[in-house]
Structure formats: C-alpha cells, structure tokens
Amino acid sequence: MKKHNKKIVAPVVITVILVLYLVIYAVMCLLSVCSMGIVGIIFALIALSGIAVSIYTLIERINEIEEGEDDDISKY
C-alpha cells in the first residue's frame, strides 16, 4: 500500500458515512411528501446537494493528498 493510500482512507470513510446519512434523510423526506408536501421535496433536494458537495470535497482532498499536500491547514 502506498504512503498516500493510507491517508486517503479517513476522508473516504467520513464521506461514505455522511453520504449514507444524507441519502437516508432524503429518502425519509421524500416518503413523507404526503404529510409535508413541497417542503419534503425541498429538504430532500438540500440533502442531495449536500451529497454533491461532499463528493466534490472528497475529490479535491484526494487530489491534494496525491500532490503531496498532507496538511490541509498549512495553507492558512
């Protein structure tokens, strides 16, 4: 296993957990559309946008790790 692969594991695991949580949340919002109406759809869309942002952030972090930028806070 490469040195970089070990550093990629944590961001991937956290992103998977977050995405699973947001998927469950979106499904619950869509299942409750009958009682909540359009509000449930809006909440589901917000959760889906959170999934998209999480995946985008994961891809950026993986690229940073592969370029050798181990410490994300060193830029600030």
Could you characterize the architecture of this molecule?
The protein is mainly alpha-helical and 76 residues long. The chain has one domain (3-68). It is 82% helix and 0% strand. It has 3 helices and no strands. It has helices at residues 3-31, 33-36, 38-66. Helix 1 packs antiparallel against helix 3. The longest helix has 29 residues, at 3-31. The protein is elongated and about 50 Å long. The chain starts with a helix and ends in a 10-residue tail after the last helix. The model has no long low-confidence stretch (mean pLDDT 84).
Instruction: Say how many strands there are.
Output: 0
Beta-strand residue fraction: under 5%
Domain count: 1
Strand count, sense and barrel status of the largest sheet are: none
Helical amount: over 70%
Number of helices: 3
**What integer value in Å does the Rg equal?**
16 Å
Mean pLDDT: 84
Instruction: For the record, give the distance between the C-alpha atoms at the N and C termini, rounded to a whole number.
Output: 30 Å
Shape designation? elongated
What does the secondary structure layout of this molecule look like, with pairings?
Elements: H1 3-31, H2 33-36, H3 38-66
Helix pairs in contact: 1-3
Relevant terms:
76 residues, mainly alpha, 0% strand, elongated
Brief write-up:
With 76 residues, the protein is mainly α. It is built from three helices and no strands.
